[in-house]
Give the backbone structure.
Amino acid sequence: MAKRKPRTVNKTTLLVMGEGEHDKAFLSHMKGIYHERRSGSKITLDFSSGGSPHDIIKDTVKKSRHVGYDKKFILMDSDVPVNQQDIKAAKNSGITILYSKPLCLEGMLLSVLGQNTPHTAQKCKSALHPQLSDNPALSKSYDPLFAKPVLDETNHATVAMLRSLLGNKQKK
């Protein structure tokens, strides 16, 4: 019997960093909806421990330095401006910044639901978290409110980009 050639699969590797554990939980929820295991892409989700945009970018650079990810992204709140030096550092490290608008993850999710967005990140958290089914650090908490039809129907630019990234259309 002839020997079989080992099957080689070119996988696209992707890192998506959240600003904090709530971001990672939501990203994990979306990955569960949109990513198929045999899609040809390997997606790693992680989170920084918050802080300033500078700290988050620095942490992402550090965490991705020794791993050859094809693409790297940070989902970052937009309530604190990112200075040009940090944007340049991210770009030089091959990191694309996706902004949660308005204000933060919770503000973005309230807007996806068509609800009014309060004027501070803390008020956005206070408005969204009671609507979730459990702790906002758990991906299952986002399921009832942000089921696939809700995420599919929104035209929010960041959510649309995340659908594409976490979906099956990864290309090098």
In short: The chain has a mean pLDDT of 92. The beta strands are 12-18, 41-47, 71-77, 95-100.
